[in-house]
Design brief:
Blueprint lengths: L1 H18 L4 E5 L15 H6 L7 E5 L3 E5 L4 H7 L6 E4 L5 H8 L5 E4 L6 H12 L4 E4 L4 H5 L12 E2 L2 H4 L3 H15 L3 E4 L2 H8 L1 E2 L11 E6 L4 E5 L6 H7 L3 E4 L4 H6 L5 E4 L6 H10 L2 E4 L5 H5 L3 H28 L7 H13 L6 E2 L4 E4 L22 E7 L1 E3 L2 E2 L2 E7 L6 H18 L3 E2 L4 H13 L10 E3 L8 E6 L18 E4 L2 E4 L3 E4 L2 E7 L9 E6 L17 H18 L5 H10 L4
Parallel strand pairs: 1-5, 3-4, 5-6, 8-13, 11-12, 13-14
Antiparallel strand pairs: 1-2, 2-3, 7-9, 8-10, 10-11, 15-18, 16-17, 17-20, 18-19, 21-28, 22-23, 24-27, 25-26, 27-28
Helix pairs in contact: 4-5, 14-15, 14-19, 16-17
């Protein structure tokens, strides 16, 4: 029945395209802000195809259609999307431009929603179609919306003030920094369209996107330090207006496009990664000069101030206690049988809610039993829910949103009874060694994430294996769990952020892994804070990592014979500190379990 539903939806979209004189249409997972996580109103790809991943797209032609996903979703797409309707295409091996060049008919008119794609994407695909006498056509309204009868409305939730006691800097101070940058660059204004950038700049938060506390809005930041906030009127409260003050003009969200026209003759910065094609087109049509430049809030947002750093430490300590309670629960209940991936999600959520401070999860919990642990970005639902079998590996990657910080932690554990196999222990220990190598890394100022990536992979490489995701991503401060511009990842494939210099104050994840398809998966993830590192006799400035995440790592899966004395020393120090931070927050059976779990190797 499900597949018939998606078949009828695909058929309805084709009819709508025919009515509009279009030969095809591109459907991304995106919103008007190029967000990673999007509101229910913008989940067009999921509605059309059934695909539940957070990255992907589809192209629908008259007689064929394709869904495009990266290596994280190779297994998931086959479970969720009917191959009779959509052929599977893997990126970056192919791309929209390549596929259309090969499959679109000569002279084809392919539609796209200019509010959901970047200018760079539109230029590239447009050139590919032009070679075949075709054209890329910006639609006036999205044809998916025309056939999606029960499409949800955008969230009406109010925007709320993010107090300076958590933000650490006033919005006026941040706007002044942006104004100084605009003046230095000879620019009149900047379009701030990324939702987390708007939130950071104005010290506001919202509830419009699941797992990310942002409000649907745009900002035009001007060189005199003033700003205009474009937001739906129902989201504006007296508290918000008072907080923003006289220097920020609040205007309806639907006035944004007309305001761009009002920048005629001005020089305006637009981020090529977050500013959709429609923004640049509107500015250029009005006679403004568009300057492609990185959003000026991105780097200062990534470098956490002392208040944000302190908040992150508090959030991590609180979250670590919830994780300890969960791991204890798992150690008691899972070996009995009867627990499932979904029951584990509910239990973990319950322990976090006991803090009384949980605002939301920071992403959907990856609760992965047995073979599902081999899917790095697996997301459990009622259809996929597996039992957590005794005598197996269980992986749980989860995070929380608190006012003082955003968390992200992965622990992989052995569910007894019985013992893990030598292969389990070998792979787990190699992942652990890579994790420790990143945690202990010391590097000169000017180092970027790609230069550290091999530290984490080296021990897996020695065994002829690797993992197909990055080693680390940036994390926000009560904002997005995936925050740029910094990353630890291979520099291949044009991965964004890998060339960004690391600065003291940046937060990164440290999460090497190993995945044996159809069998098991392993990942160990903590968050770390880049900090200055004093070295006697150092020639230049050096940096290292302060660990932020505290929760026991499962010793059952460790082959201590593969660890060096320095690695054993790190393990013992880490667990001593974990016990010191978490023990005062737990009691009874959990405390007894924690003491055992934090024993030296």
């Amino acid at each position: 029945m499900l597949m018939q539903t998606h078949e009828s939806r695909l058929s309805a979209l084709r009819e709508e395209l025919k009515r509009r004189g279009l030969d095809g249409f591109v459907v991304p997972i995106s919103d008007e802000h190029m967000s990673e996580y999007i509101g229910a109103y913008a989940q067009r790809l999921a509605w059309l195809t059934g695909f539940g991943g957070s990255a992907g797209s589809a192209i629908v032609l008259k007689d064929r259609a394709a869904i495009f996903i990266d290596g994280r979703y190779t297994i998931q797409v086959r479970e969720q999307v009917d191959e009779r309707l959509f052929e599977y295409q893997s990126v970056p091996a192919t791309s929209h431009a390549k596929w259309l060049a090969a499959n679109a008919p000569d002279g084809a008119k392919i539609g796209y929603d200019a509010w959901l794609h970047s200018r760079g994407w539109a230029d590239m695909v447009g050139k590919a179609l032009a070679k075949k006498g075709g054209e890329l056509v910006a639609v006036s309204s999205n044809p998916v919306d025309a056939v999606w009868a029960d499409r949800p409305a955008p969230s009406p939730a109010p925007a709320v003030v993010h107090d300076e006691s958590h933000a650490g800097r006033s919005s006026a101070d941040k706007r002044a920094e942006v104004a100084d940058w605009l003046k230095a660059e000879g620019l009149d204004a900047a379009v701030i369209s990324a939702l987390d950038s708007v939130a950071w700049l104005l010290n506001i938060r919202g509830a419009d996107v699941e797992r990310t506390p942002v409000a649907l809005s745009y900002v035009l930041a001007h060189a005199d330090g003033t700003a205009e906030l474009f937001i739906a009127p129902e989201k504006v409260t007296p508290d918000l207006v008072q907080h923003l003050g006289n220097a920020v003009t609040v205007r309806p969200r639907d006035a944004f496009e007309q305001a761009l026209v009002g920048l005629a003759g001005k020089s305006v910065a637009v981020d090529p990664d977050y500013g959709v094609a429609a923004i640049s087109s509107a500015l250029e049509a009005a006679g403004a000069t568009v300057v492609a430049s990185r959003d000026p809030t991105i780097l200062p947002r990534a470098i956490k101030n002392p208040v944000e750093q302190a908040g992150q430490r508090s959030a991590q300590a609180r979250d670590g206690a919830a994780i300890a309670k969960f791991l204890h629960w798992l150690s008691v209940e899972a070996p009995k049988g009867g627990e499932t991936e979904l029951s584990a999600v509910a239990a973990l959520r319950g322990f976090r809610e006991e803090t009384g401070l949980l605002k939301d999860q920071s992403f959907d919990t990856i609760s992965a039993a047995g073979p599902h642990a081999a899917i790095p970005h697996y997301r459990v639902d009622e259809d996929s829910n597996l039992p957590i079998d005794p005598g197996s590996v269980f992986l749980c990657d989860s995070g929380a949103q608190y006012l003082d910080g955003t968390t992200d932690i992965t622990r992989t554990v052995w569910i007894g009874p019985g013992e893990p196999t030598p292969e389990h222990k070998d792979r787990f220990t190699r992942v652990l060694k890579g994790h420790i190598a990143i945690a202990r890394a010391v590097f000169p100022q000017g180092t970027n994430g790609s230069q550290l990536d091999a530290f984490a992979r080296q021990y897996l490489w020695q065994a002829g294996v690797d993992y197909a995701h990055g080693t680390g991503h940036g994390v926000g401060s009560y904002l997005s769990v995936h925050e740029g511009p910094q990353r630890i990842a291979k520099a291949t494939g044009g991965q964004a952020g890998t060339t960004q210099e690391l600065h003291a104050g940046m937060i990164l994840s440290n999460e090497p892994g190993y995945y044996k398809a159809g069998h098991f998966g392993i990942r160990i993830e903590n968050l770390v804070l880049v900090e200055p590192r004093a070295i006697e006799g150092a020639e230049g400035e050096y940096l290292g990592f302060e660990n932020l995440t505290w929760a026991p790592i499962d010793a059952t899966l460790v082959d201590a014979g593969l660890l060096t004395p320095q690695e054993v020393e790190w393990w013992n120090a880490y667990h001593a500190r974990t016990y010191e931070i978490l023990a005062p927050q737990v009691e009874g059976a959990v405390l007894a379990w924690l003491e055992q779990a934090c024993q030296p190797l």
